[in-house]
Design a protein that fits this description.
InterPro entries: SspB-like_sf. The protein is built from five helices and eight strands. By secondary structure, it is α+β, with helices and mostly antiparallel strands.
Length: 200
C-alpha cells in the first residue's frame, strides 16, 4: 500500500475541518452568540466599523430624548392664556365723568350710529399710529357694523374699525373723549375737561 493512499483520507478530513471552521466563523460573524464577553466586544467593533447602531444605542437615544424634553417649547393648545392689551399695561388717567359718558353713549348707540370725537394724544388711546400726533380724531361706532369685539363699559369704548380697508383694534378711554354726536338725531354733547357734565 502506498503512503499517499494512507494519508489521503486524513487530508480530506483536514480540508473538510478547515472548511467547517471557516463556515462556522462566518456564521458567528453573521449571527453572534450572546453571553460571551468576547463575542459582544467583537460585535461592537464590527457594528462600529459598519456605521450601524448597537443594541445599547436605543437606550442612549431614549435618555437623550428625555433630557431634551426641557428644551421643547410647550404650546398650551386648548388653554389660551389671557392676553394683556396695551391699554391694560398703560396707566390711564381717571375720568370723573366716565359714568355720565357711558350712560349717554349707551342711549345714543341704541338709537343708531355715534361719532366719538377724541384726543388721540391722551395716554391709553389705541388707534392707528398715523393719528397719534393729531389733536383731534373722529371715529364712528354702530351696532350695524357687526363688530365682533365691539364693547363699551366704565373704562371706555373699543372695537376693530376699518381704516382704508384694513381693520385696527381701537381702544378709547373716556378721558380722551370730549364729544359725542348722534347721527340719527343730530344731537351733540360736548364734555368740558373739568366741567360738571355734558353740555348740550
Amino acid at each position: 500500500m502506498r503512503v499517499s493512499d494512507v494519508r489521503e483520507p486524513s487530508t480530506w478530513r483536514e480540508k473538510m475541518s478547515e472548511r467547517d471552521d471557516e463556515l462556522a466563523g462566518k456564521v458567528r460573524q453573521l449571527f453572534p452568540v450572546r453571553g460571551s464577553g468576547g463575542d459582544e466586544r467583537a460585535e461592537d467593533e464590527e457594528t462600529g466599523e459598519q456605521g450601524g447602531a448597537s443594541e445599547k444605542e436605543p437606550a442612549g437615544l431614549e435618555e437623550e430624548s428625555l433630557e431634551e424634553v426641557d428644551n421643547v417649547v410647550r404650546l398650551p393648545f386648548g388653554r389660551p392664556e389671557p392676553v394683556t392689551s396695551v391699554a391694560e399695561s398703560v396707566e390711564v388717567p381717571v375720568d370723573p365723568q366716565a359714568g355720565a359718558k357711558l350712560a349717554l353713549f349707551t342711549r345714543l348707540i341704541d338709537e343708531g350710529m355715534v361719532m366719538v370725537i377724541l384726543d388721540p394724544r391722551v395716554e391709553g388711546v389705541q388707534v392707528p399710529p398715523q393719528f397719534y400726533g393729531q389733536p383731534e380724531l373722529r371715529l364712528n361706532f354702530s351696532h350695524d357694523f357687526h363688530l365682533v369685539d365691539f364693547d363699551y363699559d366704565v373704562q371706555g369704548v373699543r372695537g376693530s374699525l376699518s381704516f382704508q380697508g384694513k381693520r385696527f383694534f381701537c381702544n378709547i378711554p373716556w378721558v380722551a373723549i370730549h364729544m359725542l354726536y348722534a347721527h340719527e338725531s343730530g344731537e351733540g354733547y360736548v364734555f368740558e375737561p373739568r366741567g360738571m357734565g355734558p353740555e348740550h
